[in-house]
Every structure is written in C-alpha cells, then in structure tokens.
Here is the input.
Amino acid sequence: MTETFDHEHGSGEDTAPGDERLDGSGVAQGIRGYLMGLLLAAGLTAASFYLAQSPWIWPHGVPAALTALAIGQMGVHLVFFLHLTTGPDNTNNVLALAFGVLIVGLIIGGTVWIMYNMNHNMAPMAHMTGPSG
Amino acid sequence: MTVAERAAFPDDPHHVGHGAQAEAPGHGAGGPAGKRIVVGYGFWIFLLSDFVLFSCFFAAYAVLRNASAGGPTESRLFDLTTVAAETACLLISSFFGGLASLAAGARQMLWFQAMMGVTFLFGAGFVALEASEFARFIGLGAAPQRSAFLSAFFSLVGCHGIHVSCGLLWLLTMMAQVLAKGFRPDILRRILCFTLFWHALDIVWVGIFTVVYLTGVAP
Here is the structure.
C-alpha cells in the first residue's frame, strides 16, 4: 500500500491535527501563517506581562483580564500553530478538543469550587498555619 | 468542493448529512482515513489527555497557592524577568518548530536540520533558565518540602519542564532519523507528532505563566 504525504492533502478527506491545507504558494503561505501566529502570541504575551504590573487597571480586574488574554493566546496557538479550523475536514479534531476542554474545565472549576466551599465551612485554622504547625 | 457540489445541497454546504454521496470527511464514507490522519488524530487524543493531567496539577496549585505555611510566598519568590525570558524562549522555539515541519513537508534536508537546531537551542535555553530558577528557589529555602504551595509549584512547573526535556530528546532523535532514513512517510508522521507535542507544551506554558506567575505577583 503506497502512501505519501501529499495524498493526505487531497480534498474531501479529514485533515490530521497539525496539518495545514495549503492551497497556492505552499511554503511561503505556511511561513506567513507561523509568522502571524508568532506576532499575535508575542503581542498577547507582552500585554499579559504589562497588565499584571500595570497601575492602570483596577486590581480586582487583573485576574479576569489575564484569563481573557491567556484564552486568546491559546486560541492563537491552536489556529496558527496547530492549524485547527472550523472546516468539515477538522470536525473530528475540534470535537476531541471540545471534549478535552470540557474535562479540563470540570476538573479545575470543580476543584476550585468545592475546595473554596470546604475552606469556607472549616473552623478558623490561624493557629495551625504558622511555621510550627 | 466545487460550486456545483455546493449547489446540489444548499441546506448542507459541507455535506455533513450526505456522506455517502459526497465522501464527506468525518463519516468514514470515503473509506478508511489515511495513516497520517489516524496517527495524527491518535496523538491529538494523547495530547488532550496530557492537558487533563496538567489540569489536575493546575487545580492542586489553585487550591494550595496560599498555603505557604509561613514560608516564602509567590510574590516574594517570582521574578518576572526570568519568566519573560523563559516565555520568549519557548514561543520562539515553537515558531521554529513550525518552520521545521514546513521544511520537512517540502523535503528540504538542510532547512529541516537548521530549523530543528534552532528549535533545540531555544528549548534548551528554556530548560536552563527554569533549572536556574529552581536552584535559586531551593537556595532561598523554598524547596518543594517547605510548604504545600511549593510542593504544588514544583510539581506543576516541574512536570512541564520534564515534558520539555523529553521533547528535546525526541527532537534530537528526529534530526538523527531524518538524517539516517530521509523523509519517509513513517518519519514524516513522527515529525507531525513531535511538532504537535512541541506546540501543545507552549499552550500549557501560557496557562502556567498566567495562572502561576502573573496572577501570583499581581497586586
């Protein structure tokens, strides 16, 4: 059974995660995509580092701003580096990602929620948190 | 897809419900998927399970971040200059990893080896910076056994660091395999998996520098 790299790029087939469907100028187009991803990711990272120490934002709003920037940057990585698209050839990849995001959200969100409530319901433990405790 | 095909199913431009006629992807109607798709998809599932693994460490960190037991706290330990340098190293490394995969697709041996070499250098720079950061913390008495906060910190960030170190070994293996065996389809599939792995580690690092470092030092 012969199998080549280019065969997989034919139309009407699924795309492997990480593979990019290049139509047109091939490598130059690919390099442009990675450059765009690099610039966007660098910009979002710089904004995150600036915001974390910036006096211009209400302190309680900083975590929300950082979260938004991080989610945006993860999106940039997924689109420009991992080449996830909304096209039909990517349905399987995106569905798997959606399931992964669901589990990650359940684990992190659920843990933080439950532990916050448990801490809230605990008796004060100030005497146990010292170095001798 | 041609315009005529699209016009044939105006309500269903992507042929999601017409797999048998149009060999729509994702339905197996066009026959079994190629090996590259199956391998890439399987590795994608593994990466998602790796994200689930990391999410457990993230959850532990979020719960224990203030449990410093009277020892060093986040804002006293973290140095954002080091973190910015680590972030830059990993992002640039990820970028050159992408260029290496393009070079592999174009069967350019010299470009592939050069891009992988640059990817390795920046990745190694990241690991070196992280190792020196850990050494500095331990020198300050902030070792993993000092407090629950530090245990959670070292397991989360250290787990990512171990992933990157393993990735560097994998990277060198791929350089050697391409040199020895050329751009065979099986080698190209391994390169696909490696680049997926490398980009995924960068995504995890975005979570780490946001949740651990930036939120830790924010006012």
